[in-house]
Amino acid sequence: MLAVVCLSGLFFFREHPRVIAAQASVVDTVAFTSDLILTPVDAWHRMVAGLKSRRELQEEVLRLQQENRVLKGQSQRLASLLSENARYKALLKSAREIEDDLIAAQITALSPDPARHIVTIDKGAADGVTEGQPVLGEEGLVGQVILAGDYNSRAVLITDSAHALPVQVNRSGLRAIAEGSGSVDRLVIRHLPATTDIRVGDLLVTSGLGGRFPHGYPVARVTAVDISEGDAFALVSAAPSSLLDRGRYVLIVQRVLTDSMSIR
Amino acid sequence: MQRARGLWVIYVSLAIAMTTMLLPLQLEWRFLRPDIVALTLFYWALALPHRVGVATAFTVGLAQDLIEGAPLGLSSLGLMIATLLLLLNYQRIRQFDALQQSLMMLFLMMLSSAIEMWLRSAINFPVQSWSVMLGLVLSVALWVPLRHLLRSVRRYYEVY
Q1: Quick one: angle between helices B131-140 and B98-122, nearest 10?
Q2: Stated pTM of the model
Q3: How far away is chain A from the Cα of B122, in angstroms, using its nearest Cα?
Q4: What CATH architecture applies to the domain A164-240?
Q5: Would the ipTM clear 0.85, i.e. be above it?
Q6: Are residues B126 and A182, on separate chains, in Cβ contact within 8 Å?
Q7: How far apart, in whole angstroms, are the C-alpha atoms of residue A113 and residue B65?
C-alpha cells in the first residue's frame, strides 16, 4: 500500500500545490539546521578574518576604492543611455519596459543530492523572493529560484542537467537553447545546424525569450564546436561566465514593470 | 508483546543521521557522502524488527526527499524494499560476522539506490552517475563502528 502511495506520489502528484507547499515549508528548517551545523566553521573563518593584518586590510580598502572609482566612472553614462533607450522604446511604441531590481544574497548550502545542482540562498519570500526569479553571480547568470521559503530559498544552477535556458550569441544574434550538462563547468547546445555561424569564444547572453530571464545577461562563453562528419547538427559546449562552484554572493533579480515614459 | 520503550531514541538517532546529509561538501565530491541514514535505519530494523519496519523506511525516505527537495517518494520505495528484504532475513543476518554483514548492507544500499535511479529515469529526473555506488562502498566501511555505537546507545537507554 505504501509502495502505491510512493509511486502515485511520484507519477501523479509531483507538482500538486500541497506537495509544493510542503516542500517550501521545510526549506527554512533545513537551512536553519545546516547553518547550525556550520556555526563552528563560520566562527573559525571569522577568527581568521579577524587576524588579518592592518596592512593587508588597508591594501584591500585601497584596491576596493580604486575599483569603485572605475565602476562609478563606467556607470556615469549609464543613466543617459538608459533614458535614451527608453525614449527609443517609446518611439517604437513598446508601452512597458521592464526594470530590474536586485536583492543581494548569499549561497549558504548545497543540496545533498549529487545528481543536482541546487543551492540554498539566505533570502526568502519575506524579502520578496518568488519562484522563477533569475539569480546572478558576479560575472553572469547563475540560475533561478525554484522554491521560496519564508527566509530562505532554493535555486537551481544553469548547469543542472534538468535545466535549460534560451540564449543568444552576442556577436551574431543567433538564438539557441543552452542545456545544463550536470557538470559544473559546461553547458551544451544541441540541435544547431552544422552550418551555423558560431565560433569558439563567442559570448552567450540571455535572449529574453520565454519571459523568465531578462534580456542581455551574460551566460557563458563557447569553448568547443563539435561537428562530426556527416552529422546534420553541431554540438556546442560553453563554459559558464560565473564560477558556479566558487562564488558565495549572488543577486536575485526582481522585475518591476514601469512605464517607459517615466524617465528617472 | 512487551510495551515499547525508548522509541524516541530511534527517532532521534535517525534525525541525527539525517543532519549528516547537510554537512558541506564540494559540489563535485558530494557523491562520496556516506549514506548514514540508510545504515541507521537498517541497524534498527535488524535490532528491533518489531518496532522499525517498512512504514519507518517510508517515513525516512519522505524526510530525505524533503531535505533534498526531490519529488516526494523518490527514495522511499528503495528503502522500503531493502528494509523488507532485511526483515524477511533478519535472523540469518544477525548471525553473520562483520564482513558478511557489511557485504549484506552494501547489497541492500545498492539495491535501494538502484531502485531510486530507476524511478528517477522513469520520471525524467536527473539520474546520479554510477559513481554513487563508490560512495556506498565507502559508507559500508562505517557499518561496523556505527553498529557498535548504536548498540551501546540501545543498551544504555534500554530501547525495546
Answers
A1: 150
A2: 0.82
A3: 9
A4: Beta Barrel (2.40)
A5: no
A6: yes
A7: 9
